[in-house]
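Data availability (excerpt). The following record was deposited with the supplementary files.
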Amino acid sequence: METSHKLYSQAAIALATFFGGPFAAALLIRKNCIVLGQERWGFNALILGIITTVLLFGCIFMIPEPVLDKIPNALIPAIYTAIICMIVEKVHGRELRAHKAKDGLFYSNWRAAGIGLVSCVVILAVLLGGIYLGEDNWNSTEYDAKIKQFARNEEVALSLYNILEEKPAEKAVEFIETTGIPKWKENIELLKAMDTLEGIPSEFTEYNELLRSYCQVRIDMYTLIAKILDEDSESYQEELQKLDKRLEDIISRLSK
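Predicted structure:
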């Protein structure tokens, strides 16, 4: 393995897992396996992540609602995140420490959190779509298609954080203006179109509203990051931290 190749750290995988569940963890572990020349293990990790996700939500749906209401929102994600961390330590702990010792590169935690959120969006869309699949009064297939496009746009827009690490400031500003912000705005338009689907259940419109707030905060953050890079100034850091907190709050609510 060359140290120029990037890996996801254990902390990054934990962050993605907390927001996106075992499926998000499987995506990042698979990426690490590919870099480490363990393609077969990566495939197995992905399949296991899918199976575990199905079993996890199956078990959650079997818990009586009065009991589920008494369980703290963060408890279940904390449990499966801790389990994933132990698995990562067992499987790749030595390789990750060796990579760090050689000053190897790691993907940012922001990228990992973004992948976790993308996974969360897709999983919730599939779950909600499955619940309402039997209803004939709305087009769940079209909703699923648009949410998948939303996830693709988000993945492209979040590549800003790689550019910030690897490219000059002017390249990052150019990406923000020509790709990043336009992708978030495109997602807002997608959400508007999704809200107009005939017979869409209220659970979906409420979820869309959270996603809309998420996109708007991303736009505000990208605009501020462009200012910081253009002016080479630290005077906007307090404002950026406030946006970070708003973003964390929205992501937490989306993950519930």
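Summary of structural features: The chain has two domains: 1-107, 109-256.
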